[in-house]
Amino acid sequence: MTILMKCSLAITVFLWFFAIAASAQFFKGGVKGGMTASEVSGDHLSGPDKLGFYGAVYTMYPLSTVSYLQMEVMYIQKGSRSIPDASNDYFDYNFSLNYVEVPLLYVYNISKFFQHKALRDVLLYGGLSVSKLVGYSETQRDLSLSSGYNTRYKPVELNFLVGFYYPLTSSLYATFGFSNSLTPIRSASLSATNGITNGQYNSVWSLGLSFIVW
User: What is the C-alpha separation between 125 and 178, in angstroms, rounded?
Assistant: First the structure.
């Protein structure tokens, strides 16, 4: 599948998602986006040094007065980065992974348990997501380590997500999240220049804004 076909498919899914949500009066929904800081466990590098961004549309179906089931369609950047300096012998490595991701989350308003004004309408969430790899690059000192879309990179990953929304207004929230892949993004039996021993997994921290549109 070409990049153009992948983009067309993603746009179609987004439009379908909006149409379904808008036609259901009992749904809430909106958009969110922000920055990501990610790392890949198992690549012998430390720290979430790979910066990127994410953007999503979502709907929230009320389960009770304080809980929701939330579904999203998201574009998110993940990967790993080694910033060259004296401490790593100027090792320059950049691993970028681009995904279309579909999270399914349980969202809970903790106001029921906390009366403090600062915690009013704070929403906690947790859940799972499935990600489809739509693009990637891997370079070391500006030399490509990627020879084509092959079995080195798993086309799909399963993730665990947790985080919370902090209210800024009645419809605008600051978002803080963490996700970690439950399935490897690359097989343990294969090796790369930087070395793979027991497989590699994405870890992503996110910071952004969420706006309830309807």
Answer: 10
Looking at residue 13, its amino acid is: V
Overall residue count recorded for the chain in this entry: 214
Tokens of 115: 């009366």
Rounded-to-integer distance, Cα 184 and Cα 204, Å = 14
Give the C-alpha separation, 90 to 105, whole Å: 41
User: What is the number of domains present in the chain?
Assistant: 1
Q: How far is CA 168 from CA 35, 71, 121, in A?
A: 18, 22, 10
- CB count within 10 Å of CB 36 equals 21
First to last CA, the chain: 34
Which CATH number covers residue 57?
Answer: 2.40.160.20
Report whether 30 contacts 21 (CB < 8 A): no
What is the pTM assigned to this prediction? 0.79
pLDDT in tens, 66-99: 899 999 999 999 998 877 676 666 678 888 999 9
